[in-house]
Amino acid sequence: MPFPINTVRATYPALSDGYAYLDGAAGTQTPQSVIDAISTAYRTGIGNVGGAFPASHRSDAIVAACRAALADLVGGHPDGVILGPNMTTLTYRLARAIAGPGDEVVLSRLDHDANVRPWAQTGATVRWAEVDPVTGELPVEQYESLIGERTKVVAVTAASNILGTRPDVAAIAELAHRAGALTYVDGVHATPHGPVDMRAMGADFYATSAYKWSGPHVGAVVADPALLESIRPDKLASAPDTVPERFETGTAAFADLDGVTAAVDHMAAMVPGTGSRRERLLTSMAAAEEHELALFQVLIEGLETMPHVMVYGKPARRTATAYFNVAGHTPRRVAEHLAKLGVNVWNGHNYAWELTGVLGIRDSGGAVRAGLVHYNDRSDVDRLLEGVARLE
């Protein structure tokens, strides 16, 4: 059956303002069910966890439900779900607990800086996996010479946040595991664009952020609980020493965690389905990916046929994300022009610091990024193309 785009769009109050939200790669809008879950948690009354009273018990239940939902989303185990304010904060924390002087870490220039700088600042020796600047691909073969007996972690993205490139993470992970190294996969950009199976891709750690898939600003890293038992992060003496709690600092935003669960449930219900929530998520996200890529074909072909537009990257497998420049106009000027026409896009390096350096555009303002998510429709794409065409 076709993706029920009109039904899905109707669940997002923000879309009624008439704008074409092509800024989803920087954060999506939230459906009414997520808004309701967060507000209900506050209205009902919540307390800190571990208490003897009902409000505390409600928070205990919210945390447990959130871990279960995230495990269903990525194919992990609830006891291995680490919660935090965002992926960057969690990655810094884990990097310092895993790697250090004497180790080697293999990083990629395809990655968002949040999966680069935390590892580069541990004191470990950095070895770089390079990107093909024309195609935007991350060749697997190079990892054979990059990974060695001192490699502690191979950090790699599941999808580039500006080019959309989906590298062969499973093949990279196989090489890492053969050498006894761990894999830390940044799934922040990949998660909203299709089904996720962290075990199939060989991810020892899989990081994601709920605000990229219709949830609130909450980050998570999912790993095997047994692996987490072997890692000792710095923590307060009085904080729990259990897994995954010992990786979580401070008090959680409990109402937002309820919103995360609602967002997972929302994505599982975008198309009719049966079975467990995990099964419904796989069905729903596959349908969303098909919808996005069909629209993206129109978007990317439209941009590539314009002689005044330079589109970066031509990866074989990608998310519905376009990164481009318009001749005679700065990226900011293009974004401002489109905003006046009711089209939201981003401009700049978008924290793809290494990649924009490889492309040679980091110091000149980067480029324009337009990203499709499941609630975008053909009219959004047409408005973007019409707006860019006016700049010829």
Automatic annotation (TrEMBL):
SUPFAM superfamilies attached to this UniProt entry: PLP-dependent transferases
Residues of the Aminotransferase class V domain: 21-384
Pfam families to which the protein is assigned, alphabetical: Aminotran_5
Record InterPro entries: Aminotrans_V_dom (IPR000192), Cys_dSase-rel (IPR011340), PyrdxlP-dep_Trfase (IPR015424), PyrdxlP-dep_Trfase_major (IPR015421), PyrdxlP-dep_Trfase_small (IPR015422)
PANTHER family xref list: CYSTEINE DESULFURASE (PTHR43586), PYRIDOXAL PHOSPHATE (PLP)-DEPENDENT ASPARTATE AMINOTRANSFERASE SUPERFAMILY (PTHR43586:SF21)
UniProt protein name: Cysteine desulfurase-like protein
Organism, as annotated: Nonomuraea longispora
